[in-house]
Specification:
There is one protein chain. The protein is an all-alpha fold. The protein has one domain: ABC transporter involved in vitamin B12 uptake, BtuC. About 75% of the residues lie in helices and about 5% in strands. β2 and β3 form a beta hairpin. α1 packs across α2, α4 packs antiparallel against α5 and α13 runs antiparallel to α14. The C terminus is likely disordered.
């Protein structure tokens, strides 16, 4: 049964995602948490592009989440733009520019030096936003972001109810997921995974590894920026912590919990992390300690994450079935010869 479910998910990933998350707000405590799982899941999905598919560890990805959130928030709250689409476009544009600049500079180094550079740039952007209080609100955050309706030619949809906002976010996230599926199934997606496995061999095959990494980094920043923009609309507020390094740490944890390098792992990781955080914080004051123990346990005993481990066990089961079938065929082919040698 589980193998049949996995095959259906593999054959129709976007449809499966849409069905599951269409029911999601009705099975968890409240719609706001469901929407938060979607935005953070998209954020983790963006991080997964650079880490899970390209093999680059970034410690400063909160910069692009925050740039998307502040880009949308400033456009709608400070500049007085009355179009939700223009606000989203401003957030995505800010994350895009940030991704190109930070990626171009950080990709001059490899390994831990690359990771530390991303952390340094992330903190630089955080302190810049902290001191530009006239635009960002500083330590108090950016407040007063209006929740504008979704305007289409001839009609508009209000986002004032939490359920309508949730489904708007779900549609945007589903479209982003469909775009990523097309990218990963393209030759560019294959090159990303080749670079992850062996950058030197990919370069020997004629690929411009640094250029591909920059494209991957920028694409990852765009996904994070879209997620940040949606979160700003959801909260009507952008906290300064959106740019802080702890937010980058959270998205790393979510990706590892769900399974790095998997299609649905980031959303599963975000869901588990946020649901545990929400439930544990209601019953114990030291819930963060429990979260730390859970994360350490996953790293030690489920290094591929929840979804990655599930897929790995299914693959091993299929291989065992295939090997058993081969052995059965081999035994059947040998049976007549054995019977001929058997004495009368």
């Amino acid at each position: 049964m589980m193998r049949s479910f996995a095959r259906i998910v593999a054959a129709h990933p976007i449809v499966t995602f849409a069905i599951v998350f269409a029911l999601f707000p009705f099975v968890i405590p409240y719609e706001a948490l469901a929407a938060q799982v979607l935005t953070f899941g998209l954020f983790a999905l963006g991080f997964n592009i650079i880490y899970g598919y390209t093999g680059l560890l970034s410690f400063g990805h909160a910069a692009f989440w925050g740039l998307g959130a502040y880009g949308t928030g400033i456009t709608l709250a400070k500049l007085g733009i009355t179009s939700l689409w223009l606000g989203l476009a401003a957030g995505i544009g800010a994350a895009l520019v940030g991704g190109v600049v930070v990626g171009y500079l950080c990709l001059r180094r490899r390994g831990i030096y690359f990771s530390m550079l991303t952390l340094a740039f992330g903190q630089m952007i955080f302190f810049s936003a902290f001191h530009l209080s006239d635009w960002t609100g500083g330590d108090d955050g950016l407040r007063g972001i209006p929740r504008l309706p979704v305007a289409f030619p001839g009609f508009s949809i209000s986002l004032e109810s939490s359920l309508s906002l949730y489904f708007f976010i779900m549609v945007v996230v589903t479209l982003m997921l469909a775009a990523l599926q097309r990218i990963l199934e393209s030759p560019f997606g294959a090159v990303l995974q080749a670079i992850r496995e062996n950058p030197s061999r990919a370069e020997a095959c004629g690929y411009d590894v640094r250029r591909v990494k920059l494209l991957s980094f920028t694409l990852s920043a765009i996904f994070a920026g879209v997620a940040g923009s949606l979160e700003a609309i959801r909260l009507n507020f952008v906290p300064i912590d959106a740019l802080y390094w702890t937010t980058s740490a959270q998205v790393v944890i979510m990706t590892l919990l769900g399974g790095a390098g998997t299609f649905f792992g980031p959303f599963i990781g975000a869901g588990v992390f946020l649901l545990l955080e929400d439930r544990l914080s209601l019953v114990i004051d030291w819930w963060s300690l429990v979260m730390g123990v859970i994360f350490i346990s996953f790293v030690l005993f489920l290094p591929k994450g929840i979804w990655g481990t599930f897929l790995g066990r299914l693959r091993r089961g299929d291989e065992a079935v295939d090997d058993g079938a081969v052995e059965s065929k081999r035994a059947a082919s040998m049976r007549p010869a054995v019977e001929q040698k058997r004495p009368a």
